[in-house]
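Morning F.,

Quick status update on the modeling queue. The single chain you submitted on Monday has been processed. Sequence for confirmation:
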Amino acid sequence: MMALLTKNQLLSFAEHLINESKISGELNEYLDTAIEKDQDLMRSRSETPNTITNDHILGYLYSRWSFFYEVHNAMRIQLGDCSENSDDDWVRPFIESQLIWSEHEWREKLGLPPLVDPLDAVQHSLFLNIVLSGSHNPYLEWKKTIGYDES
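Structure tokens below.
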């Protein structure tokens, strides 16, 4: 069974994501506008307008994502849906791909210029479908589906 990522591996992956040109981090500047476009966040803010700050909302979003990721990652490890070698595992490319897709969707909702070609964004959205289909190696199947050639 695969071991969890070491602290150095996590830091390396986080640094990789920070340097990814298709994930900007710019969306934090548009949080107020994004909240207006998300019913759950809008409800939270309107129910307690004087106590919920943008930092609270960012913390909530991060916690919600972390919980989702950790629960699903633990389940897939228990089910053996992972590689012994964390460098060959599909979860990190999947996370990166979903961040690219999510940023593309939010940029569209917020009227910001895209960072990726729309076709590229759609290709990233396909990764989730492949994971949900139960593919043995979702990353490899995704690369084949989109015609990715590493040469």
